[in-house]
UniProtKB/TrEMBL annotation:
This is Esterase TesA. Residues 119-268 form the SGNH hydrolase-type esterase domain. Its EC number is 3.1.1.1. Pfam families: Lipase_GDSL_2. The gene is tesA. Keywords: Hydrolase, Membrane, Transmembrane, Transmembrane helix. The chain crosses the membrane at residues 6-27, 34-53, 59-78, 85-105. Gene3D superfamilies: SGNH hydrolase. PANTHER family: THIOESTERASE 1/PROTEASE 1/LYSOPHOSPHOLIPASE L1 (PTHR30383). GO terms for molecular function: carboxylesterase activity. It is an enzyme of class 3 (hydrolase).
Amino acid sequence: MNPIVYHIASGQAFFTGVALIILAALLSLREHRLARRLMVLSFLLGVIAAAVSSTPLPWWLYGIMGVVTLVWLCSGFVKKSRRAAAYAVIGVWLVGLLLEVPSHLTPGVKPAASRSLTVIGDSVTAGLGDEATETWPRILERTHGIAVQDLSHVGDTVSAARKRVMETEIESPLVLLEIGGNDLLGSTTTAQFEKNLDALLSELTSPGRQLVMLELPLPPFYHEFGRIQRALARKHGVKLVPKRVFLSIIAGGGATLDSIHLSQAGHQNMAEVVWQILAPAYSTD
């Protein structure tokens, strides 16, 4: 995977953007012509990086950040207010950065009541129908002695996955969701995505059951899908795995067949990464 694409889709571009905007604010305090030119360049690159990262911070926060930044830009014509405005920009963007950091930390899971796991996914999990390919749920089952109920299916959207769940009895104390990519890249609207994901998580939520969901890597300007996924994860107590985790798998050499669907090596890598996340749930057995 192209390093720039990875940097953007993983959300790490937001941190780069914040750093560049803060640098621009500091450079604005200098009177040298070179510093002023570097300030403009740093600011433009920072805004672009933050925007294309699709970081799903609340819109009200983006509004405040935008207003404060605009005031700072206008203050360049008023020397007395320039310093205060620059510090305000630094402060508000640091707040955004600090609010985003927790979403990039891998969540922990609690011990499960049994060595069983239900997996809900699309073709990234189910594979493309090649019988010679051992998918990552099957690898987990074989290598770690876990009974895996695999409900993944090629082409599934969140809505289709919910129908599959409603038709199936799920008894596993731990459910992993790798779903939503076909909604993101297809014709599903954000309103439909929110409704369907809320219904799916409601269907799965049960006392004593843990839900773990892979965060969707987002193309530029797809903030709303990420905002919905994070909000519903909080609502239903779902542990959301940062999108960089999945991206780190498909970014590996030979891990995919077409930049998205996993090769046999990709399924092996996926199984290893997923096990690192889920292993604490089964360590007491």
